[in-house]
Amino acid sequence: MQPKDLLVLTEEFGSPLYVYDATTIEQQYNRLTKAFSKVEKLRVNYAMKALSNISILKLLKKMGSGLDTVSIQEVQLGLHTGFEPSDIIFTPNGVSFEEIEEVAQLGVQINIDNLSVLEHFGTKHPKVPVCIRINPHVMAGGNENISVGHIDSKFGISIYQIPHVLRIVNNTNMTINGIHMHTGSDILDIEVFLYAAEILFDTAKQFNNLEFLDFGSGFKVPYKKGDIETNIEELGKKLTKRFLAFEKEYGKPLTLAFEPGKFLVSEAGYFLAKVNVVKQTTSTVFAGIDSGFNHLIRPMFYGSHHQIENISNPKGKERFYTVVGYICETDTFANNRRIAEIKEGDILCFKNAGAYCFSMSSHYNSRFKPAEVLWKEGKGYLIRERENFDDLLKNQIMVEV
Description:
Blueprint: H1 3-13, E1 17-21, H2 22-35, E2 42-47, H3 54-63, E3 66-69, H4 72-81, E4 88-90, H5 97-105, E5 109-112, H6 115-124, E6 130-135, E7 157-158, H7 162-172, E8 176-181, H8 190-204, E9 212-214, H9 232-250, E10 255-258, H10 262-265, E11 269-280, E12 285-289, H11 298-302, E13 308-310, E14 318-324, E15 332-340, E16 347-350, E17 371-376, E18 379-384, H12 389-393
Parallel strand pairs: 1-17, 2-3, 2-10, 3-4, 4-5, 5-6, 6-7, 6-8, 8-9, 9-10, 12-14
Antiparallel strand pairs: 1-11, 11-12, 11-16, 13-16, 14-15, 17-18
Helix pairs in contact: 2-3, 2-9, 3-4, 6-7, 8-9
């Protein structure tokens, strides 16, 4: 998208505003499927926790994607959008057994990462095939909050507990139809991913009725010019070769599945905010915008980097600014960042705002959530209205005390 397009959308729909470029999502999806084009049965399940707007889900469905879900509500959104239950996998962590049963009754693929839940489910529902999520104890991830493959992670069943899994399977006569792994997010070295894949293959050999192997995702995207990213093309070449060899060894065709979220939508997203104030202190120049971590919490939550551009003055002389929000506590998006000269009323554009941005927004300080727009074929489509005061009051009950 061009800055002029983003400025037009801000004029039309106001700020702050989330904008998603459909072309970028399509390009990322096609890039992944092309990298694994030699795999006969490839399945891409979009991890919808990254961005769950139903128009985005519909766009991905048209491209052939399935869904990776982590809550009954995400499953319901997927079904509402038109996905078939067979196109959805449910990979929760720490949810109630009742929620797992409710999802299973909808015909959705269940992915279990807890021995006690596995035994309970196998005892009550032995005829329902399930996938097992393993923890390969391979560390990957750019931040401790998104590195989930380490030995103390709450995610997955340890590979050292596979004998326990086999005991449960034999005792309950349940069917394991898939093995899943996830090492974390922001994978920098594909050799680490391939090493974890070998652990998945070794685990899979111990189950006779598998239909698919799910390699999760966690692919890193570039956050700024020259930034490193996961080499999907090289990964596709190396993992495809190994997967096809394992299929022959296993003796039957298998589906190779991935669950990309950030990889598909991060670079497609732009967050637009207006500068309310420019404030000079003894050592800092603050650019205060009409938003805060109530709309974009990732920089405050785990130090994520979002490139910030002044699209109102793109050719202006660069100066150093600390970009902050209007929340009444520390609310910093960037410290001493070089940005084209900023004046009050300018529109700042935050890049890589497609994943885990709107989906993590809140009503903190009783602020409204922003609108969302889908940019497709040169036109902006409103896909979520900006909230109003009635939205803040919804579900609240005033009582006389």
